[in-house]
Design a protein that fits this description.
The strands form four sheets. The protein has a seven-stranded antiparallel β-sheet, with no helix packed on it. The protein contains one helix and 22 strands. It is elongated, with a radius of gyration of 24 Å. 2% of the residues lie in helices and 39% in strands. 27% of the residues are buried. It has 263 residues and is mainly beta.
Length: 263
């Protein structure tokens, strides 16, 4: 388990295990780690911990946040990193191998072409294995008109057709199912990204970043960076991890994408 060792002037003050997915640091009492010092902003920084990975973000503090002597806005924490807040030091200890690499976090974009693949031009508009959503209703190219849409040669109306079964309710992915996202708008609409990794970062660094994690219980989305939180099915999420269900529509940094389970 990752932890922080708080010290000042070489004197260790306390050890702080990172038990929460979102740990806030600042002068005000509501922070998870409160440092009552005027050099520390009321809401100074935040650490987002997902599985074995931790991401540090400065919250526009007055005096800044430093890691190993360098000012940062966001930083992928690695074992023995030293976070400097005024005269205080927070040493990050995590001897468990991490799932991500720092360069991937720093450079991840929602529309990175090397991560996305374009659906074939002759592919059907919707996979037969995926039930239609409200945005997919209507006739697909090449689909014939349903019986009863025109009169036959006899002039008699066709026999009544049985009602189509209703679409099953959304389900969450299990550990042995593979999830994916498909871009719905913009120049990259139609591109797909399979969520094969334990951690997949999405967004635009400096604007908005979220992480989709693959867990035994399914897929979860968690906010990492930016003042705006991710939107799922038109509803803005909070700072906690949110489980994803088949055909959820996600919006991050102005890009809409659909999460679905590849059966």
């Amino acid at each position: 388990m990752a932890k922080l060792i708080l010290s000042m002037d070489g004197l260790v003050l306390k050890e702080l295990p990172l038990l929460k997915e979102r740990t806030t640091i600042g002068r005000k009492p509501h922070n998870d780690i409160q440092i009552d010092n005027l050099a520390i902003s009321g809401e100074h920084a935040v650490i987002v911990t997902i599985l074995n990975d931790s991401f540090l973000e400065d919250m526009n503090s007055t005096n800044g946040t430093y890691v190993n002597g360098q000012p940062i806005k966001k930083h992928f924490l690695q074992n023995n990193d030293v976070v400097e807040l005024g005269k205080y030091r927070l040493k990050y200890i995590n001897e468990t191998p991490t799932q991500s690499q720092a360069p991937d976090f720093e450079k991840t974009m929602v529309l990175r072409p090397d991560m996305m693949r374009k659906a074939p031009a002759d592919a059907p508009a919707a996979s037969p294995a995926r039930p239609q959503t409200d945005t997919q209703t209507g006739f697909r190219p090449g689909q014939s008109l349903p019986a009863g849409s025109s009169m036959g040669g006899s002039g008699l109306p066709p026999p009544p057709q049985p009602l189509a079964p209703s679409a099953p309710p959304p389900v969450a992915a299990s550990a042995n199912q593979l999830g994916a996202i498909q871009i719905l708008n913009g120049a990259n609409a139609g591109r797909e990204l399979e969520l094969t990794k334990t951690l997949t970062t999405l967004g635009k660094p400096g604007l908005q970043v979220a992480v989709i994690t693959r867990r035994p219980q399914g897929y979860f989305i968690t906010h990492v960076e930016g003042s705006n939180l991710p939107i799922v099915n038109g509803k803005q999420l909070d700072a906690q991890a949110h489980p994803l269900e088949d055909h959820d529509v996600i919006e991050i940094a102005g890009v809409k994408m659909e999460f679905f389970i590849k059966r």
